[in-house]
Design a protein that fits this description.
With 267 residues, this protein is an all-beta fold. The protein has 3 domains: 86 residues, Sandwich (Immunoglobulin-like), CATH 2.60.40; 117 residues, Sandwich (Immunoglobulin-like); 46 residues, no CATH class. The strands form 9 sheets. The protein has a 4-stranded mixed sheet, with no helix packed on it. The chain has no helices and 26 strands. It comes from Enterococcus casseliflavus ATCC 12755. Keywords: Secreted, Signal. Belongs to the serine-aspartate repeat-containing protein (SDr) family. This is Cna protein B-type domain protein.
Length: 267
């Protein structure tokens, strides 16, 4: 009497435990191969396999948005039993390494301040979903949800940026260090599916912050001799055009690794 058994495989989302349909699985045994796609319940089954048969189970393709880990499982068929096997998939996620630099505005023996971009710490961003973030049958975030709040470190990179599920997002600057202007322009980015063998996708973003600025307006008038009367000048006041002014420091000041001395002319 020939004794037989069955094998049932359930595919699940590793993060949520929910079933994953549309995963293609491969069953190898007795020099033959069968491929089965998981149904809406995440199940794939083969039946009537001779007892004692060793069956190797692997994943051919993962559902869209999930990472194929290349996992193999071997089971031995038992008579009159359905052996149940669970395989999981990890959703692909992304990490934003976002590079942030500061722009130190250009002022300038006549000393000229040369400002350049350099990393800026202490900038706070909110990461918001710009669409419903859905992987498989699971909705991880709704449109406009804030999925993370992060701050830049000394290198200008975001500290402890969490892994995000695939989808469309934006980074919104919420605060900047004293002396810098908050740029509230949304920085849009998207993590897209890169294939089932890629577990982690990434996007690189860049943003800049401007120093707060001042505008200095000078109004110069001058007295002129309009006429003479009884050997005394008759004075009048008029606009003093085409005069050149210099800006000088009223105290010494440190700038980058150099010191600008008091009474230095600068541009």
């Amino acid at each position: 009497m020939k004794l037989i058994g069955n094998i049932k495989v359930k595919k699940i989302d590793k993060d949520t435990g929910r079933p994953l349909p549309n995963a293609k699985l491969k069953f190898e045994y007795d020099n033959q191969t069968k491929e089965v796609v998981t149904d809406s319940n995440g199940l794939a089954q083969i039946n009537d396999i001779t007892q004692g048969t060793t069956v190797t189970i692997s994943e051919v393709t993962a559902p869209d948005g999930f990472f194929n880990q290349g996992e193999l499982k071997k089971v031995v068929v038992e008579p009159n039993k359905t052996i149940e096997v669970t395989l999981d998939n990890k959703p692909q996620k992304g990490k934003v390494p976002a590079g942030l630099e500061k722009k130190e505005t250009e002022y300038g023996n006549l000393y000229e301040f040369k400002f350049d971009y350099s990393p800026l710490a202490g900038v706070i961003y909110e990461i918001q979903a710009t669409e419903d973030i859905k992987v498989g049958s699971t909705t991880h975030a709704k449109k406009d949800d804030t999925v993370a709040t992060v701050v830049t470190g000394d290198d200008g990179e975001l500290i402890d940026m969490p892994l995000l599920y695939l989808g469309k997002y934006q980074a919104i600057e919420k605060s900047a260090p004293d002396g810098f202007i908050i740029d509230s322009t949304p920085i849009l980015f998207e993590f897209t599916y890169q294939g089932q063998t890629i577990e982690l996708v990434s996007e690189s973003l860049s943003a800049t912050n401007e120093f707060q600025k001042i505008k200095l307006t000078l109004h110069k008038s001058e007295e002129i001799i309009k006429d003479w009367k009884e050997n005394l000048p008759i004075l009048d006041v008029q606009e003093a055009n085409d005069k050149v002014f210099g800006l000088y420091t009223d105290q010494s000041m440190a700038f980058a690794d150099q010191e600008l001395l008091q009474d230095s002319l600068f541009n």
